[in-house]
Amino acid sequence: MISEPLLPLIIKMAIPTMLGMMVTVIYNLADTFWVGQLDNKSMTAAIGVAFSFVSLIQALGFWFGYGSGNVMSRALGAKNDTEAQIISSDGVALAVGAGIILTLIGYPFARPFAAFLGGNASEQLLLYSTDYLKIMLLAIPFSLFSTTVYNQFRLCGNVKDAMIGLLIGMAANMILDPILIFGFQMSIVGAGWATLIGQVLSCVYFFIHSHTQGNIPVSLLYVSFKKKRLYHIFAGGAPNFAREGITGITSVALNQVAAGFGETVIAALTVSARIAAIGYMLMIGFGQGFQPICAINFGAKQYDRVKKAFWMTVKIGTALMIVSAVFLAIFAPQLAGLLSTDLEVIAIASLILRLQCISFPLLGFYAVSSMYMQNVGQYFRALLISISRQGIFYFPLLFLLTALWKQTGLYILQPLSDVISAGLAIIIIKKYRFPNVSIRENH
Protein backbone atom coordinates (compact mmCIF):
# COMPACT_ATOMS: atom_id res chain seq x y z
CA MET A 1 0.00 0.00 0.00
CA ILE A 2 2.78 2.48 0.77
CA SER A 3 5.46 1.31 -1.67
CA GLU A 4 4.01 -0.30 -4.83
CA PRO A 5 3.69 1.81 -8.02
CA LEU A 6 0.44 3.75 -7.80
CA LEU A 7 -1.29 3.09 -11.12
CA PRO A 8 -1.04 -0.73 -10.97
CA LEU A 9 -1.98 -0.61 -7.28
CA ILE A 10 -5.07 1.54 -7.89
CA ILE A 11 -6.19 -0.76 -10.69
CA LYS A 12 -5.53 -3.88 -8.61
CA MET A 13 -7.54 -2.48 -5.70
CA ALA A 14 -10.29 -1.11 -7.94
CA ILE A 15 -11.07 -4.18 -10.02
CA PRO A 16 -12.64 -6.19 -7.17
CA THR A 17 -14.61 -3.19 -5.90
CA MET A 18 -15.78 -2.37 -9.42
CA LEU A 19 -16.91 -5.95 -9.84
CA GLY A 20 -18.61 -5.70 -6.47
CA MET A 21 -20.42 -2.53 -7.53
CA MET A 22 -21.49 -4.08 -10.82
CA VAL A 23 -22.86 -7.03 -8.90
CA THR A 24 -24.68 -4.50 -6.71
CA VAL A 25 -26.15 -2.86 -9.80
CA ILE A 26 -27.27 -6.21 -11.22
CA TYR A 27 -28.64 -7.10 -7.81
CA ASN A 28 -30.65 -3.87 -7.65
CA LEU A 29 -31.85 -4.51 -11.19
CA ALA A 30 -32.86 -8.10 -10.44
CA ASP A 31 -36.03 -7.40 -8.45
CA THR A 32 -37.10 -4.67 -10.89
CA PHE A 33 -36.38 -6.91 -13.91
CA TRP A 34 -38.26 -9.98 -12.72
CA VAL A 35 -41.14 -8.01 -11.23
CA GLY A 36 -41.30 -6.08 -14.51
CA GLN A 37 -41.99 -9.35 -16.34
CA LEU A 38 -45.28 -9.60 -14.42
CA ASP A 39 -46.53 -6.75 -16.65
CA ASN A 40 -47.87 -4.76 -13.71
CA LYS A 41 -46.59 -1.20 -13.42
CA SER A 42 -47.99 -0.93 -9.88
CA MET A 43 -45.56 -3.66 -8.81
CA THR A 44 -42.67 -1.96 -10.63
CA ALA A 45 -43.55 1.31 -8.88
CA ALA A 46 -43.75 -0.54 -5.52
CA ILE A 47 -40.10 -1.59 -5.92
CA GLY A 48 -39.22 2.09 -6.33
CA VAL A 49 -41.24 3.06 -3.27
CA ALA A 50 -39.53 0.44 -1.10
CA PHE A 51 -36.10 1.32 -2.47
CA SER A 52 -36.26 4.73 -0.84
CA PHE A 53 -36.49 2.92 2.50
CA VAL A 54 -33.73 0.48 1.55
CA SER A 55 -31.51 3.51 0.82
CA LEU A 56 -32.03 4.76 4.36
CA ILE A 57 -31.02 1.38 5.81
CA GLN A 58 -27.96 1.23 3.56
CA ALA A 59 -27.08 4.68 4.85
CA LEU A 60 -26.82 3.31 8.40
CA GLY A 61 -24.71 0.37 7.21
CA PHE A 62 -22.32 2.68 5.39
CA TRP A 63 -22.19 4.97 8.43
CA PHE A 64 -21.06 2.22 10.77
CA GLY A 65 -18.98 0.43 8.13
CA TYR A 66 -17.14 3.42 6.72
CA GLY A 67 -16.79 5.09 10.09
CA SER A 68 -15.19 2.07 11.72
CA GLY A 69 -13.37 0.93 8.57
CA ASN A 70 -11.64 4.28 8.03
CA VAL A 71 -10.33 4.33 11.61
CA MET A 72 -9.30 0.67 11.35
CA SER A 73 -7.29 1.30 8.18
CA ARG A 74 -5.47 4.26 9.73
CA ALA A 75 -4.78 2.18 12.87
CA LEU A 76 -3.33 -0.60 10.71
CA GLY A 77 -1.19 1.95 8.86
CA ALA A 78 0.14 3.05 12.27
CA LYS A 79 0.63 -0.67 13.21
CA ASN A 80 -1.91 -0.54 16.05
CA ASP A 81 -3.77 -3.84 15.54
CA THR A 82 -5.39 -3.80 18.99
CA GLU A 83 -7.13 -0.51 18.32
CA ALA A 84 -8.34 -1.80 14.96
CA GLN A 85 -9.91 -4.82 16.68
CA ILE A 86 -11.76 -2.64 19.21
CA ILE A 87 -13.06 -0.27 16.52
CA SER A 88 -14.26 -3.25 14.47
CA SER A 89 -16.23 -4.58 17.44
CA ASP A 90 -17.74 -1.18 18.17
CA GLY A 91 -18.92 -0.79 14.56
CA VAL A 92 -20.52 -4.25 14.45
CA ALA A 93 -22.25 -3.76 17.82
CA LEU A 94 -23.75 -0.46 16.69
CA ALA A 95 -24.99 -2.01 13.43
CA VAL A 96 -26.61 -5.08 14.98
CA GLY A 97 -28.21 -3.11 17.81
CA ALA A 98 -29.65 -0.49 15.48
CA GLY A 99 -30.96 -3.19 13.12
CA ILE A 100 -32.89 -5.06 15.79
CA ILE A 101 -34.44 -1.89 17.18
CA LEU A 102 -35.55 -0.65 13.74
CA THR A 103 -37.16 -3.99 12.84
CA LEU A 104 -39.12 -4.17 16.10
CA ILE A 105 -40.34 -0.57 15.81
CA GLY A 106 -41.05 -0.52 12.06
CA TYR A 107 -42.82 -3.81 11.32
CA PRO A 108 -46.16 -3.02 13.03
CA PHE A 109 -46.43 0.23 11.04
CA ALA A 110 -45.52 -1.12 7.58
CA ARG A 111 -48.69 0.09 5.82
CA PRO A 112 -48.67 3.73 6.97
CA PHE A 113 -44.92 3.79 6.40
CA ALA A 114 -45.41 2.56 2.82
CA ALA A 115 -47.99 5.32 2.28
CA PHE A 116 -45.55 7.91 3.63
CA LEU A 117 -42.82 6.66 1.27
CA GLY A 118 -45.01 7.51 -1.73
CA GLY A 119 -47.06 4.35 -2.07
CA ASN A 120 -50.38 6.17 -1.82
CA ALA A 121 -50.73 6.97 -5.54
CA SER A 122 -53.25 4.12 -5.76
CA GLU A 123 -54.70 1.45 -3.47
CA GLN A 124 -53.06 -1.29 -5.53
CA LEU A 125 -49.66 0.39 -5.27
CA LEU A 126 -50.08 0.73 -1.50
CA LEU A 127 -50.93 -2.97 -1.14
CA TYR A 128 -47.88 -4.14 -3.10
CA SER A 129 -45.57 -1.62 -1.39
CA THR A 130 -46.70 -2.78 2.06
CA ASP A 131 -46.20 -6.48 1.28
CA TYR A 132 -42.69 -5.88 -0.06
CA LEU A 133 -41.74 -3.45 2.70
CA LYS A 134 -42.64 -5.91 5.48
CA ILE A 135 -39.95 -8.31 4.27
CA MET A 136 -37.42 -5.50 3.89
CA LEU A 137 -38.03 -4.61 7.55
CA LEU A 138 -37.20 -8.18 8.60
CA ALA A 139 -33.96 -7.96 6.62
CA ILE A 140 -32.64 -4.85 8.40
CA PRO A 141 -30.34 -6.51 11.03
CA PHE A 142 -28.78 -8.78 8.40
CA SER A 143 -28.36 -5.91 5.93
CA LEU A 144 -26.64 -3.68 8.50
CA PHE A 145 -24.30 -6.45 9.67
CA SER A 146 -23.18 -7.44 6.16
CA THR A 147 -22.80 -3.83 4.95
CA THR A 148 -20.73 -2.89 8.01
CA VAL A 149 -18.35 -5.85 7.81
CA TYR A 150 -18.10 -5.57 4.02
CA ASN A 151 -16.81 -2.01 4.35
CA GLN A 152 -14.45 -2.96 7.18
CA PHE A 153 -12.92 -5.68 4.99
CA ARG A 154 -12.63 -3.38 1.99
CA LEU A 155 -11.18 -0.35 3.78
CA CYS A 156 -8.57 -2.54 5.47
CA GLY A 157 -7.40 -3.76 2.07
CA ASN A 158 -9.15 -7.16 1.83
CA VAL A 159 -11.21 -6.34 -1.22
CA LYS A 160 -11.30 -9.97 -2.37
CA ASP A 161 -13.19 -11.34 0.64
CA ALA A 162 -15.36 -8.23 0.69
CA MET A 163 -16.41 -8.79 -2.90
CA ILE A 164 -17.04 -12.52 -2.42
CA GLY A 165 -19.25 -11.89 0.60
CA LEU A 166 -21.24 -9.36 -1.36
CA LEU A 167 -21.42 -11.65 -4.38
CA ILE A 168 -22.73 -14.66 -2.44
CA GLY A 169 -25.77 -12.84 -1.09
CA MET A 170 -26.55 -11.09 -4.35
CA ALA A 171 -26.13 -14.24 -6.44
CA ALA A 172 -28.54 -16.07 -4.13
CA ASN A 173 -31.02 -13.22 -4.53
CA MET A 174 -30.80 -13.23 -8.31
CA ILE A 175 -31.16 -17.01 -8.52
CA LEU A 176 -34.10 -17.10 -6.12
CA ASP A 177 -35.99 -14.19 -7.73
CA PRO A 178 -37.44 -16.12 -10.72
CA ILE A 179 -37.87 -19.28 -8.65
CA LEU A 180 -39.95 -17.60 -5.96
CA ILE A 181 -41.74 -15.05 -8.18
CA PHE A 182 -42.76 -17.48 -10.94
CA GLY A 183 -41.98 -21.02 -9.76
CA PHE A 184 -43.76 -20.61 -6.42
CA GLN A 185 -46.09 -17.91 -7.82
CA MET A 186 -45.27 -15.55 -4.93
CA SER A 187 -45.28 -12.45 -7.17
CA ILE A 188 -43.63 -9.36 -5.61
CA VAL A 189 -43.47 -11.05 -2.20
CA GLY A 190 -41.12 -13.65 -3.71
CA ALA A 191 -38.71 -10.86 -4.68
CA GLY A 192 -38.69 -9.70 -1.06
CA TRP A 193 -37.94 -13.16 0.33
CA ALA A 194 -35.14 -13.64 -2.21
CA THR A 195 -33.56 -10.44 -0.91
CA LEU A 196 -33.86 -11.52 2.73
CA ILE A 197 -32.32 -14.96 2.12
CA GLY A 198 -29.43 -13.37 0.22
CA GLN A 199 -28.72 -11.00 3.12
CA VAL A 200 -28.61 -13.90 5.60
CA LEU A 201 -26.13 -15.82 3.44
CA SER A 202 -23.86 -12.77 3.19
CA CYS A 203 -23.87 -12.44 6.97
CA VAL A 204 -22.84 -16.07 7.41
CA TYR A 205 -19.95 -15.66 4.97
CA PHE A 206 -18.64 -12.45 6.51
CA PHE A 207 -18.76 -13.84 10.03
CA ILE A 208 -16.88 -17.03 9.13
CA HIS A 209 -14.23 -15.34 6.98
CA SER A 210 -13.58 -12.58 9.46
CA HIS A 211 -11.87 -15.28 11.55
CA THR A 212 -9.58 -16.46 8.72
CA GLN A 213 -6.82 -15.25 6.39
CA GLY A 214 -5.50 -12.50 8.66
CA ASN A 215 -8.79 -10.58 8.86
CA ILE A 216 -9.82 -8.83 12.05
CA PRO A 217 -12.39 -11.21 13.59
CA VAL A 218 -15.97 -10.04 14.11
CA SER A 219 -16.58 -10.19 17.85
CA LEU A 220 -18.55 -8.32 20.47
CA LEU A 221 -16.00 -9.24 23.17
CA TYR A 222 -13.84 -6.20 22.46
CA VAL A 223 -16.60 -3.58 22.45
CA SER A 224 -15.44 -0.41 24.15
CA PHE A 225 -17.70 2.59 23.59
CA LYS A 226 -15.30 5.34 24.53
CA LYS A 227 -16.03 8.91 23.53
CA LYS A 228 -13.06 9.30 21.19
CA ARG A 229 -13.75 6.05 19.33
CA LEU A 230 -17.43 6.81 18.92
CA TYR A 231 -16.58 10.26 17.61
CA HIS A 232 -14.35 8.85 14.88
CA ILE A 233 -16.92 6.20 13.92
CA PHE A 234 -19.82 8.64 13.73
CA ALA A 235 -17.86 11.56 12.29
CA GLY A 236 -15.83 9.37 9.92
CA GLY A 237 -18.92 7.63 8.55
CA ALA A 238 -21.08 10.76 8.53
CA PRO A 239 -20.33 11.69 4.87
CA ASN A 240 -21.43 8.24 3.70
CA PHE A 241 -24.46 8.23 5.99
CA ALA A 242 -25.38 11.71 4.83
CA ARG A 243 -24.98 10.83 1.15
CA GLU A 244 -26.98 7.61 1.37
CA GLY A 245 -29.45 9.02 3.89
CA ILE A 246 -30.10 12.14 1.85
CA THR A 247 -30.60 9.88 -1.18
CA GLY A 248 -33.24 7.96 0.77
CA ILE A 249 -34.97 11.10 2.03
CA THR A 250 -35.03 12.75 -1.39
CA SER A 251 -36.28 9.48 -2.92
CA VAL A 252 -39.22 9.65 -0.53
CA ALA A 253 -39.85 13.28 -1.49
CA LEU A 254 -39.46 12.42 -5.17
CA ASN A 255 -42.00 9.59 -4.90
CA GLN A 256 -44.42 11.84 -3.03
CA VAL A 257 -44.17 14.55 -5.72
CA ALA A 258 -44.26 12.01 -8.57
CA ALA A 259 -47.36 10.40 -7.05
CA GLY A 260 -49.23 13.53 -8.10
CA PHE A 261 -48.45 12.67 -11.74
CA GLY A 262 -49.49 9.00 -11.39
CA GLU A 263 -47.83 5.63 -10.87
CA THR A 264 -46.57 5.58 -14.48
CA VAL A 265 -44.16 8.40 -13.64
CA ILE A 266 -43.07 6.63 -10.44
CA ALA A 267 -42.41 3.45 -12.44
CA ALA A 268 -40.41 5.41 -15.07
CA LEU A 269 -38.30 7.10 -12.40
CA THR A 270 -37.65 3.69 -10.84
CA VAL A 271 -36.53 2.21 -14.16
CA SER A 272 -34.31 5.16 -15.15
CA ALA A 273 -32.66 5.28 -11.71
CA ARG A 274 -31.75 1.59 -11.89
CA ILE A 275 -30.19 2.01 -15.32
CA ALA A 276 -28.31 5.23 -14.46
CA ALA A 277 -26.79 3.36 -11.52
CA ILE A 278 -24.93 1.13 -14.00
CA GLY A 279 -22.55 3.95 -14.89
CA TYR A 280 -22.38 5.77 -11.59
CA MET A 281 -21.84 2.69 -9.41
CA LEU A 282 -19.02 1.61 -11.72
CA MET A 283 -17.36 4.93 -10.92
CA ILE A 284 -18.04 4.50 -7.20
CA GLY A 285 -16.43 1.06 -7.34
CA PHE A 286 -13.32 2.46 -8.98
CA GLY A 287 -13.13 5.22 -6.37
CA GLN A 288 -13.46 2.69 -3.56
CA GLY A 289 -10.26 1.06 -4.80
CA PHE A 290 -8.55 4.40 -4.13
CA GLN A 291 -9.87 4.73 -0.57
CA PRO A 292 -7.68 2.22 1.33
CA ILE A 293 -4.63 3.53 -0.57
CA CYS A 294 -5.55 7.06 0.48
CA ALA A 295 -6.26 6.24 4.14
CA ILE A 296 -3.28 3.97 4.76
CA ASN A 297 -0.79 6.30 3.04
CA PHE A 298 -2.23 9.27 4.91
CA GLY A 299 -1.79 7.34 8.17
CA ALA A 300 1.82 6.66 7.13
CA LYS A 301 2.27 10.41 6.32
CA GLN A 302 2.92 9.67 2.63
CA TYR A 303 1.12 12.85 1.57
CA ASP A 304 2.61 13.22 -1.89
CA ARG A 305 1.58 9.66 -2.69
CA VAL A 306 -2.01 10.39 -1.58
CA LYS A 307 -2.12 13.48 -3.79
CA LYS A 308 -0.91 11.63 -6.88
CA ALA A 309 -3.33 8.74 -6.28
CA PHE A 310 -6.21 11.22 -6.10
CA TRP A 311 -5.49 12.78 -9.48
CA MET A 312 -4.94 9.40 -11.14
CA THR A 313 -8.28 8.20 -9.85
CA VAL A 314 -10.08 11.36 -11.01
CA LYS A 315 -8.68 11.12 -14.56
CA ILE A 316 -9.53 7.45 -15.03
CA GLY A 317 -12.91 7.89 -13.34
CA THR A 318 -13.86 10.76 -15.64
CA ALA A 319 -12.99 8.67 -18.69
CA LEU A 320 -15.20 5.86 -17.35
CA MET A 321 -18.13 8.24 -16.89
CA ILE A 322 -17.82 9.61 -20.43
CA VAL A 323 -17.92 6.09 -21.88
CA SER A 324 -20.89 5.21 -19.65
CA ALA A 325 -22.79 8.34 -20.72
CA VAL A 326 -22.40 7.55 -24.41
CA PHE A 327 -23.45 3.92 -23.95
CA LEU A 328 -26.50 4.66 -21.81
CA ALA A 329 -27.69 7.50 -24.06
CA ILE A 330 -27.52 5.32 -27.18
CA PHE A 331 -29.20 2.26 -25.70
CA ALA A 332 -31.65 3.96 -23.30
CA PRO A 333 -34.88 2.56 -24.87
CA GLN A 334 -33.51 -0.96 -25.10
CA LEU A 335 -32.31 -0.92 -21.48
CA ALA A 336 -35.60 0.54 -20.24
CA GLY A 337 -37.42 -2.18 -22.17
CA LEU A 338 -35.61 -4.82 -20.12
CA LEU A 339 -37.20 -3.52 -16.91
CA SER A 340 -40.70 -2.72 -18.12
CA THR A 341 -43.11 -3.86 -20.81
CA ASP A 342 -45.21 -0.68 -20.57
CA LEU A 343 -44.51 1.55 -23.62
CA GLU A 344 -45.29 4.78 -21.78
CA VAL A 345 -42.97 3.86 -18.91
CA ILE A 346 -40.21 2.99 -21.41
CA ALA A 347 -40.58 6.32 -23.27
CA ILE A 348 -40.46 8.47 -20.13
CA ALA A 349 -37.61 6.46 -18.58
CA SER A 350 -35.53 6.80 -21.77
CA LEU A 351 -35.97 10.57 -21.82
CA ILE A 352 -34.99 10.91 -18.14
CA LEU A 353 -31.94 8.71 -18.66
CA ARG A 354 -30.66 10.61 -21.70
CA LEU A 355 -30.99 13.93 -19.91
CA GLN A 356 -29.02 12.58 -16.96
CA CYS A 357 -26.19 11.42 -19.23
CA ILE A 358 -25.42 15.09 -19.93
CA SER A 359 -23.94 15.53 -16.44
CA PHE A 360 -22.29 12.10 -16.16
CA PRO A 361 -18.73 13.25 -17.08
CA LEU A 362 -18.69 15.55 -14.03
CA LEU A 363 -19.47 12.79 -11.56
CA GLY A 364 -15.98 11.28 -11.60
CA PHE A 365 -14.43 14.31 -9.93
CA TYR A 366 -17.45 14.75 -7.67
CA ALA A 367 -17.41 11.18 -6.31
CA VAL A 368 -13.65 10.89 -5.76
CA SER A 369 -13.49 14.32 -4.08
CA SER A 370 -15.83 13.21 -1.30
CA MET A 371 -13.91 9.96 -0.76
CA TYR A 372 -10.63 11.85 -0.71
CA MET A 373 -11.72 14.38 1.91
CA GLN A 374 -13.18 11.62 4.06
CA ASN A 375 -10.06 9.44 4.07
CA VAL A 376 -7.71 12.29 5.00
CA GLY A 377 -9.90 13.10 7.99
CA GLN A 378 -11.58 16.20 6.53
CA TYR A 379 -15.01 15.03 7.62
CA PHE A 380 -16.91 18.30 7.25
CA ARG A 381 -15.63 18.93 3.73
CA ALA A 382 -16.48 15.36 2.78
CA LEU A 383 -19.92 15.73 4.33
CA LEU A 384 -20.58 18.96 2.45
CA ILE A 385 -19.70 17.39 -0.90
CA SER A 386 -21.63 14.19 -0.11
CA ILE A 387 -24.93 15.85 0.72
CA SER A 388 -24.81 18.46 -2.04
CA ARG A 389 -25.88 16.27 -4.98
CA GLN A 390 -28.96 14.68 -3.41
CA GLY A 391 -29.59 17.16 -0.63
CA ILE A 392 -28.40 20.76 -0.61
CA PHE A 393 -29.27 21.34 -4.26
CA TYR A 394 -31.53 18.42 -5.21
CA PHE A 395 -34.17 18.87 -2.53
CA PRO A 396 -35.05 22.54 -3.17
CA LEU A 397 -34.73 22.02 -6.94
CA LEU A 398 -37.29 19.20 -6.73
CA PHE A 399 -40.02 21.58 -5.60
CA LEU A 400 -38.84 24.59 -7.63
CA LEU A 401 -38.56 22.78 -10.97
CA THR A 402 -41.84 20.88 -10.63
CA ALA A 403 -43.61 24.10 -9.67
CA LEU A 404 -42.27 25.77 -12.81
CA TRP A 405 -42.38 22.94 -15.36
CA LYS A 406 -44.44 20.09 -13.81
CA GLN A 407 -43.26 16.66 -15.06
CA THR A 408 -40.47 18.19 -17.14
CA GLY A 409 -39.03 19.57 -13.92
CA LEU A 410 -38.66 16.00 -12.63
CA TYR A 411 -36.78 15.02 -15.79
CA ILE A 412 -34.11 17.75 -15.58
CA LEU A 413 -33.80 17.62 -11.79
CA GLN A 414 -30.86 15.21 -11.46
CA PRO A 415 -28.57 16.59 -14.21
CA LEU A 416 -28.97 20.16 -12.98
CA SER A 417 -28.19 19.10 -9.40
CA ASP A 418 -25.14 17.17 -10.66
CA VAL A 419 -23.67 20.20 -12.44
CA ILE A 420 -24.03 22.50 -9.43
CA SER A 421 -22.66 19.86 -7.01
CA ALA A 422 -19.59 19.21 -9.15
CA GLY A 423 -18.88 22.95 -9.10
CA LEU A 424 -19.02 22.95 -5.31
CA ALA A 425 -16.61 19.99 -5.15
CA ILE A 426 -14.11 21.80 -7.37
CA ILE A 427 -14.16 24.83 -5.06
CA ILE A 428 -13.66 22.70 -1.92
CA ILE A 429 -10.79 20.66 -3.37
CA LYS A 430 -9.08 23.77 -4.76
CA LYS A 431 -9.04 25.38 -1.32
CA TYR A 432 -7.75 22.37 0.64
CA ARG A 433 -4.03 21.91 1.28
CA PHE A 434 -2.01 19.09 2.84
CA PRO A 435 0.54 20.00 5.48
CA ASN A 436 3.31 21.58 3.38
CA VAL A 437 1.99 19.95 0.19
CA SER A 438 -0.13 21.58 -2.53
CA ILE A 439 -3.15 19.62 -3.59
CA ARG A 440 -2.40 20.32 -7.23
CA GLU A 441 -0.11 17.93 -8.97
CA ASN A 442 2.60 19.48 -11.10
CA HIS A 443 1.51 18.51 -14.59
UniProtKB/TrEMBL annotation:
It comes from Eisenbergiella porci. Belongs to the multi antimicrobial extrusion (MATE) (TC 2.A.66.1) family. MepA subfamily. It is found in: Cell membrane. It holds the Pfam family MatE. This is Multidrug export protein MepA. GO terms for molecular function: antiporter activity; xenobiotic transmembrane transporter activity. GO terms for biological process: response to antibiotic. Its main location: membrane. Keywords: Antibiotic resistance, Cell membrane, Membrane, Transmembrane, Transmembrane helix, Transport.
